[in-house]
Specification:
Helix content is about 35%, strand content about 30%. The chain contains five helices and seven strands, in the order E-H-H-H-E-E-E-H-E-H-E-E. The chain has a seven-stranded mixed beta sheet with strand order 1-2-3-4-5-7-6, with helices on both faces.
């Protein structure tokens, strides 16, 4: 289906299970060759449900969840929240950006990221940032193409595995 048939909108609380499933599917596909096997096996929908339930309950500016929906199916998601690491320097944090495998290459990631950045800008944030795993070359190239600037790195102890991350920022002048 054409990209214009996809709606970008705020996520709803009743979508937590579908987003937990999307999160696990995309995360496993993305990090299958990067994360240890134990991390891949430990990540499941039950582990992700609390995050998505909480994020979907948030409706504040520069916080919450946006989804890409087509014909009743969730194909992508982006979530925002308060920064969790000092290297974000007070910027809003893009926590997750996932697009289902069957929908990749259709511009949904771009539309979701633009929605998140616009929400941050409208909320008066001075910028937005995210952490990307250093070895995730595809995501890093996407963020650069979207105007993100790579900066400092840090070791994320993570709940599942320790990963080297790079902070990508967008400034709102």
């Amino acid at each position: 289906m054409p990209e214009h048939d996809v709606t970008i909108r705020r996520g709803r609380p009743d979508e937590a299970a579908a987003l937990a499933r999307l999160h696990v599917d995309v995360w496993r596909a993305t990090y299958g060759g990067l994360a240890p096997e134990e991390a891949l096996s430990r990540l499941d929908e039950a582990r992700r449900m609390p995050y998505w339930s909480g994020a979907l309950a948030t409706v504040q500016p520069a916080r919450g969840v946006w989804v890409a929906e087509e014909a009743g199916k969730l194909l992508g998601v982006v979530s925002l929240g308060a920064a969790t690491h000092p290297t974000f320097a007070g910027r809003a944090e893009i926590k997750h950006l996932y697009v289902a495998a069957e929908a990749q290459g259709r511009g949904l990631g771009k539309r979701l990221l633009q929605a998140a950045l616009e929400d941050c800008r409208s909320a008066g944030e001075h910028g937005a940032a995210l952490a990307v795993v250093r070895q995730n070359a595809r995501a890093r190239a996407f963020y650069r193409a979207m105007g993100g600037v790579e900066g400092a790195g840090f070791l994320d102890p993570g709940p599942l595995w320790r990963s080297e991350n790079i902070v990508v920022t967008w400034e709102f002048g």
